[in-house]
Here is the input.
Amino acid sequence: MSKIDRQKIMGILDEYDKEDITIATLGSHSSLHMFQGAKTEGFRTAVVCEKGREVPYKRFGVCDEYIMVDHFSDIVNEEVQEQLRDMNSIVFPHGSFVAYAGLDNIETIFNVPMFGNRDILRWEAERDLERKLMTESGVRIPKKIKNPADIDGTVMVKFPGARGGRGYFVANSTEEYDEKIETMMARNWIEEEDIKGAHIEEYVLGCNYCIHYFFSGLKDEVELMGIDSRYESTIDGLVRVPAKDQIDMGVNASYVVTGNHPVVLRESLLPQAFDIGDKITEGAKGLVPPGFNGPFCMQTLVNDDLEVVVFEMSARSDGGTNTFMNGSAYSYLYYGEPLSMGRRMAMEIKNGIAEDRLDEIIT
Ligand code: ADP
Here is the structure.
């Protein structure tokens, strides 16, 4: 199936009444502050919601319109798209939207104007593309070990599609790598195919900071909007167990995100945070034009050499933005009032309309 023609989306946008725009997204992930922010900026809001999942939107009162569907994935159905277009909707993408709508569908059949660059979503989803973007942009990432025989320090081993870090493991030598692979094979946790696709990288011993940026296409500038850190099961539960019992339990740690907490970086690290944001947005301009547009997140670990190492990115609003629905220490510095990521997105749309430049920030 061929990719959506940009001109087609621009044609739809042309037809929209710019005085009567709806901000729409799937009711999940980081949609609450998108709706709240959009309402604050004077937009109507519409949630596409799976039946039974509407409670937060009703109770927090952040949505004007409800498009109820049997399954989240129905957001790509033609009649749902039609309802969205009829409301002059601009869709705000987030992690669940991408997961449920599906990347292929977003690229080929989802004919509703979206905020951001739809082409960049794939660069987050495919590990090789993600690494290419980061390396070519000059961002420090964990070193990759091509051959298990070359392991000469602590490494983390990741498997394709192992979302939430299930089945990821740490090894300190080639022997330990081989042993753990064998155990996992014996338990049917992985197959031959997974071993071929195993990705081995330097284990970064440090603290987790997920840095949320907003790239304003209108201002051609990156803003540092907030930072969170994650609570992950089972790893965060395991570290509360004494070492002896950890060994007795014999469980393999997983990294399923169950919540987030807001954090700040020590101030002397902020230049690195800005540098990473500047580098990746510059790099993306050439590799996947027009590059980043709107929210994105760099997930980092900071070691005791005070290096900020990026191990993963989100090319759209990341779930950790929920830690600053009422603003973060950083977004406050720009605007002098509590500002969420969702509200910053809505502001960009509002400015795009006012400056008649919506076409630059919508795909
Ligand atoms: P997924 O996207 O499948 O959830 P991630 O790549 O985000 O997997 O990794 C899951 C967790 O593993 C991260 O939150 C982080 O705590 C840890 N992690 C990932 N890469 C490294 C690394 N190179 N060194 C140390 N810890 C890591």
In short: Residues 142, 156, 162-165, 201-204, 208, 230, 232, 255, 301, 311-312 surround adenosine-5'-diphosphate (CB under 6 Å). The chain has three domains: 6-114, 125-138+205-353, 144-202.
